[in-house]
Amino acid sequence: MILHVVDAAHPDPIGQIQAVHSVLDTIEGARDIPELIVFNKADLASDEQRAFVRSLSERAVLVSAVTGEGISQLQTVIASMLPRPREVIDCVVPYTHGALIHRIHEEGEVLAEEYLGEGERIRARVDGALAAAVRAVALPLQEKLRARLPKALPSQTWWPLLRTTNEPDNGEASAERGCSRDGRPSAQRTRDDAQGNLQCP
User: Fold this and answer.
1) What's residue 22's pLDDT?
2) Which of 106, 123, 155, 198 qualifies as a cystine partner to 98, CB 3.0-4.6 A?
């Protein structure tokens, strides 16, 4: 998608939008990409300007980088416009396939997960190629486990590009990333797991 940012307080927002669109017209296929117009500097715009720019686009979002106004709404709208993987997997992936587990978290939409002795139980939306790769190594899912896992994680949002992790920078961080104190995989996961090594001693 194209995130088109326009100055909400500018005297000629229409001219700004047209200038960008004229550039996009020179790029093959650019106008076929979904576009979201975001009017920034909402804190500097008058009530009349705010009403006017809202009328310029059906999906227009007003935000202010200074006050934080509209940021949550912007995130929600972006999330609703991003394409979602279509296939749903519900299986146990052995910990020896840590790279595959990492791919699910990075490329898919994780709906729920649970850490078991033999592997990580994951329910997620993924694309066809990743679904096939997961099913090739997945362990059989026992019937008693199907009703135990919630259908979705609390407040789960399809937001793979903005996922962040807060961790201590001391020596304990590396231990917490992969294993808990009892030697079983920890629920904490960071981008440092990119190599897929989630095995515990």
Assistant:
1) 95
2) 198
> Rounded to two decimals, what is the model's pTM?
0.49
CA dihedral 144, 110, 75, 23 (to 10 degrees): -150
Q: Name residue 139's beta-bridge partners.
A: 92
* Distance in Å from the first CA to the final CA of the chain: 43
DSSP-assigned beta bridge partners for residue 113: 122
Which residues make beta-bridge pairs with 92?
121, 139
DSSP E strands, 15-118? 35-40, 61-62, 87-94, 109-115
Residue type, 127: D
Query: Is the Cα torsion angle 146, 149, 151, 156 positive or negative in sign?
Result: negative
Element (H, E) at 6: strand 2-7
Which pLDDT score, from 0 to 100, does residue 59 have?
84
Give the phi and the psi of residue 121 in degrees, each rounded to 5.
-80, 125
Q: What is the pLDDT of residues 48-94, one digit of tens each?
A: 999 999 999 888 899 999 999 999 999 999 988 877 777 899 999 99
User: Residue 185 has what pLDDT?
Assistant: 45
Burial group, residue 181, by CB count within 10 angstroms (0-12, 13-18, 19+): exposed
Low-confidence ranges of the chain (pLDDT < 50): 153-201
